[in-house]
Specification:
Elements lengths: L4 E7 L5 E6 L1 H4 L2 E6 L4 E10 L1 H4 L6
Bound molecules: zinc ion.
């Protein structure tokens, strides 16, 4: 079950940070994604993995 890692990613086109769900591999680096601001496919760089969301939010 890969392909569903929530990450913060920054668009190289408009520098906006967005939450995306990507594969394990993509979460380690960069991936291409359609940016709604740029309205085209842009490279996105992963800035942080949101592991908290991944686990469904248990309180410790
Ligand atoms: Zn963009």
């Amino acid at each position: 079950m890969s392909g569903d890692v929530p990450v913060d990613a920054v668009c190289t086109g408009c520098s906006q940070t967005r939450v995306k769900r990507v594969s394990e591999e993509e979460a380690e680096g960069s991936f291409r994604h359609v940016c709604h601001v740029c309205q085209s496919v842009q490279w996105m760089n992963t800035v942080a993995r949101l592991s908290g969301l991944e686990q469904g939010g248990d309180g410790e």
